[in-house]
């Protein structure tokens, strides 16, 4: 099957971020876009689920990771039997 060129416009910062991500994943942008196109054609749908929700920011992602860690490592969790002691630790 012969290849053809596709020209597209994309924000410069987004392009750089995508190139870095693809490089970290061992891919280039051509491979990524080819994979996305093949999946879209195969499934007759977008290769992602569009929604109106904003993606979590870095602070939220860190909090989510910390929560997951604490769930999976109960030995490092701090628990309280006294609300006043908990509030003292929280507020200093």
Keywords:
mainly alpha; Arc_rbn_hlx_hlx; cis-regulatory region sequence-specific DNA binding; toxin-antitoxin system; DinJ; Type II toxin-antitoxin system RelB/DinJ family antitoxin; single chain; 92 residues
Task: Provide an overview of this structure.
The protein has four helices and no strands. The model has no long low-confidence stretch (mean pLDDT 91). The protein starts with 11 loop residues before the first helix and ends with a helix. It has 92 residues and is an all-alpha fold.
Detail the topology: elements first, then pairings.
Blueprint (H helix, E strand, L loop, with lengths): L11 H13 L4 H15 L14 H15 L10 H9 L1
Strand content bin: under 5%
Please summarize the sheet with the most strands. none
Q: What is the string of helix and strand elements?
A: HHHH
Number of helices: 4
Provide a concise account of the structure shown.
InterPro entries: Arc_rbn_hlx_hlx, DinJ, RelB/DinJ. It comes from Roseburia inulinivorans. The chain is mainly α and 92 residues long.
């Amino acid at each position: 099957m012969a290849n053809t060129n596709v020209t597209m416009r994309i924000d410069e910062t987004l392009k750089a971020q995508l190139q870095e991500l693809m490089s970290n994943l061992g891919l280039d942008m051509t491979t990524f876009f080819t994979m996305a196109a093949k999946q879209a054609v195969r499934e007759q749908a977008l290769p992602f689920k569009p929604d109106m929700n904003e993606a979590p920011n870095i602070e939220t992602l860190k909090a989510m990771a910390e929560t997951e860690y604490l769930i999976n490592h109960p030995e490092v969790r701090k628990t309280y039997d006294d609300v006043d002691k908990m509030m003292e630790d929280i507020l200093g």
